[in-house]
Amino acid sequence: MKVRELLQIVFWSKKALRRILIGFGILIATLVLVTGVLYETELHWLTPGERKAGKAVLAQIDSLQNLELISRKDFEARESGLQEKLNKAHQAAWTLRDEAVSSELYFYLYVTERERAEVWKQNQIQTGDSSITSSDRELNRKAITTEKEKVRFYRLILHKQLD
Questions:
Q1: CA separation for the pair 65, 40 (Å, rounded)
Q2: How many whole angstroms separate alpha carbon 93 and alpha carbon 49?
Q3: pLDDT tens, residue by residue, 107-142
Q4: pLDDT of residue 54
């Protein structure tokens, strides 16, 4: 028998072709299923390492929240090891959700620092300069209120994700 005839008979019969197509279909279905599971895991699963590191960072950022009661030195002392913890939390990230939580922690710290800067600015305005008008003082109070609302919003989001 020639090779051509052998190939036509053995490999390309209807039964063999049907088996090949069924096997190919099962392979494609399995790949789609595995891809879907990996995708959902990537989007919705927060790894234990990131949860633990995130909770530690969140607790330290939360300790900075009583801005009116904390002195500048105390604020800086509490903030000293925070960047290192944030970097550890970022390195512990495996999934997309881990990365999102890590980014939200960075942003939460940024908003907290901005709020602290506004409070310091407001304190300097109230105690020092008498040339500032009452409308400027009111505008600064509104800015501080807006910053506090942002901080509360990010705090709620992060506590919901990490608890």
A1: 35
A2: 8
A3: 888 888 887 877 777 777 666 556 667 777 777 778
A4: 84
DSSP string covering the chain: --HHHHHHHHTSSHHHHHHHHHHHHHHHHHHHHHHHHHHHHHHHPPPHHHHHHHHHHHHHHHTT--TTTS-HHHHHHHHTTHHHHHHHHHHT--SHHHHHHHHHHHHHHHHHHHHHHHHHHHHHHHHT-SSS-HHHHHHHHHHHHHHHHHHHHHHHHHHHHH-
32-41 per-position pLDDT tens digit: 999 999 998 8
Q: Is the pTM here over 0.85, yes or no?
A: no
Q: Identify residue 89 by its one-letter amino acid code.
A: A
Rounded Cα–Cα distance for residues 50 and 94 (Å): 8
